Amino acid sequence: ESNGFLFDENQWKDLLKKYQDRKKENQKRLEEIAGYNLNANSPKQVFQFLTKDLSLPLTASTGEDNLVALLGNHCKDERSREAINLILDIRRVRKTIGTYLSAQPDFDGRMRTSYRIVGTETGRSSTSNLDAPLRPIKGFGLAFQTITKHGDIGADIRRMLISDEGYKIIDPDLSQAEARVVSLLSDDEETLRLFDTMDIHKLTASWLFGKSMEAITKEERFIGKTVRHAGNYGMGK
Asked: Taking the model in full, what pTM does it have?
């Protein structure tokens, strides 16, 4: 919290340009599909576009969960699928620009965060920007714990944070922790034993893709992990 990270301004400029270009390209393609200037962040405009122009049965909000449900259940043509994916992509890119790439380094050029030891209802820690009274204006710093590690949007944001000379930034993680807890609470001793001899998420992926664990790619392992958690927590399709 006191030291923060060195901030690479060149990486920041490259990332900002990358995501601004992506937003422009997505917006241009969305307007080509819709035939007019559609604001992907406007619930009213998106609702009208999906229900009137695309005739999709959307009755609730235009939040991400409902749009993903439309993709899985009701989008029968490529135009509808592309339009919804573009709307989702534009929103994520805007968040990446507005939340992460608009963050300002501190007065000494280092990027910092503010820790709250019990910042959530479950007792986990959280991080936030350095707002008043810590700093005179809003926008300093970055909530480090919210920077995504997955997917193709935002996963490269960490490149603008670099280590001091003689140090390295590492990314420690618990080994398949959530799946272990589920196996423990359900008295699944057979699966608990497997954790000591193999990667359980690769095993799940091997069932899904019908290939050996050795042939499972990083992306396929992530899908196996997602499906295992979805099964454990009763997620629907």
From this structure: 0.75
CB atoms < 10 A from the CB of 56, how many? 20
- Of 112, 76, 96, the closest CA to residue 23 belongs to 96
> If we measure between CA atoms, which residue out of 102, 107, 124, 106 comes closest to residue 115?
124
Helix (H) or strand (E) holding 229: helix 218-232
DSSP the chain: --S-EEE-HHHHHHHHHHHHHHHHHHHHHHHHHHSS---TT-HHHHHHIIIIIS-----S--SHHHHHHHHHHT--SHHHHHHHHHHHHHHHHHHIIIIIIT-B--TTSEE--EEETT-STTS--EEE-B-TTTSSSTTBS--GGG---SSSSSTTGGGGEEPPTT--------SSHHHHHHHHHTT-HHHHHHTTTS-HHHHHHHHHHTS-GGG--HHHHHHHHHHHHHHHTT---
User: Per-residue pLDDT tens for 192-236?
Assistant: 999 999 999 999 999 999 999 999 999 999 999 999 999 988 887
SS3 172: coil
Structural tokens at position 127: 């991080």
Tokens, residue 205: 């992926």
Q: What is the pLDDT of residue 237?
A: 66
Provide CB contacts within 8 A for 49, sequence distance 6+: 34, 38, 83
